[in-house]
């Protein structure tokens, strides 16, 4: 029996995770948490709406934590699991991006498993099979390009939340869907890949693959390139992480190759500036990724609330990064402070509602 603590149980990932847990008798929910939404229809031994996630984890003592919280709010749970060597199935990419080196240090001390749930990183994990970074030439992160792929800046001036929320290939929560439209999601994923697989940024490429069938690729030093293909369905990476290394069956049909269209193109980083900003923040290191994430969270919320134009998201984040000192975090309190300060700075500069 594997006892799963599911954090973010009412979200897009959370609901699909419950489906996976229910389909597997060897998985059980020992704890479920949400931010503010009711857990009445969730069957778990311990439940918590709001409050301190690490307290819940202490009480539940899970075998695996599936962190499917959205945003920086997931950071303490990520560090809790890494520090204790409790297996961590990580959907909450923002926590790894923000914690960076501190998360890696906690992971080294805890020596537990860190299994990515993000589809691209699950794909990379499977292609890499634990091989060392020296064998890798480069990682290729794929992305659909989101609903605005191919648009010019002029065509994005008036983009509204409903258009940004209409993702062509994935059904996800609102924050990550807007991140997919700005390419901030690919930016966060670039930093996530760097920390997960210990590959320098100049050896991580981002390529658009509009139908989201190729989930990512690894080029090895011998000239071989391995790709991971599958229908865009998060139940596959969730199941992979929760049942690792069993690769339990899922209800997905086998991939029908003759029905596929596979094409690749480079992202337009001039128009979708959030990707370039993430690369720069990652390369500068320290708490720049933490500041990037915090500024983006505030900007996305403001965009969704109709307080900021779509192109304003990248402007707000550019400004926040210019004002950040980027000083490396000594501990989680420094991260919390960087997150708080960045949010406050961004909040002051946003147009009044
Ligand atoms: P969502 O908005 O649908 O759900 C978020 C969940 O987090 C909800 O259950 C909410 O109640 C909970 N939550 C928010 N704040 C919380 C807090 N302070 N304490 C406890 N719970 C809190 O989001 P989602 O789309 O499921 O995404 C969740 C995470 O997974 C994000 O980090 C996202 O980037 C990542 N992810 C999602 C997908 C996807 O397909 N949805 C794919 C890859 C990665
Ligand atoms: Mg992803």
Secondary-structure topology with pairs:
Elements: E1 2-7, H1 12-23, E2 27-34, E3 46-49, H2 53-60, E4 64-67, H3 75-84, E5 87-90, H4 93-99, H5 101-110, E6 114-116, H6 119-128, E7 136-143, H7 161-164, H8 174-182, H9 184-197, E8 204-208, E9 214-220, E10 225-229, H10 235-243, H11 273-284, H12 288-304, H13 312-323, H14 332-349
Parallel strand pairs: 1-2, 1-4, 2-3, 4-5, 5-6, 7-8
Antiparallel strand pairs: 7-9, 9-10
Helix pairs in contact: 1-10, 3-4, 3-5, 4-9, 4-12, 8-12, 9-11, 11-13, 12-13, 12-14, 13-14
Structure description:
The protein is an alpha/beta fold and 353 residues long. Helix content is 43%, strand content 15%. The protein is built from 14 helices and 10 strands. Strands 3-2-1-4-5-6 form a 6-stranded parallel sheet, with helices on both faces. Strands 8-7-9-10 form a 4-stranded mixed sheet, with helices on one face. Helix 1 links the parallel strand 1 and strand 2. It is globular. It starts with a strand and ends with a helix. The mean pLDDT is 97. The chain binds nicotinamide-adenine-dinucleotide (NAD) and magnesium ion. Magnesium ion binds next to helix 6.
Explain briefly what this protein structure is.
This protein is an alpha/beta fold and 353 residues long. 43% of the residues lie in helices and 15% in strands.
Tell me the series of helices and strands, N- to C-terminal: EHEEHEHEHHEHEHHHEEEHHHHH
Number of helices: 14
Label the overall shape: globular
* Strand residue percentage: 15-25%
Total E-strand runs: 10
The bound ligands are: nicotinamide-adenine-dinucleotide, magnesium ion
Spatial strand order of the main sheet: 3-2-1-4-5-6
In which range does the helix fraction lie?
40-55%
Alpha-carbon distance between the termini? 50 Å
Q: Could you list the spans in which at least 5 consecutive residues all have pLDDT below 50? A: none
Give a quick account of the main beta sheet: strands, pairing sense, barrel closure: 6 strands, parallel
Give Rg in angstroms. 19 Å
| Overall pLDDT | 97
Task: Quickly give the structural class.
Answer: alpha/beta
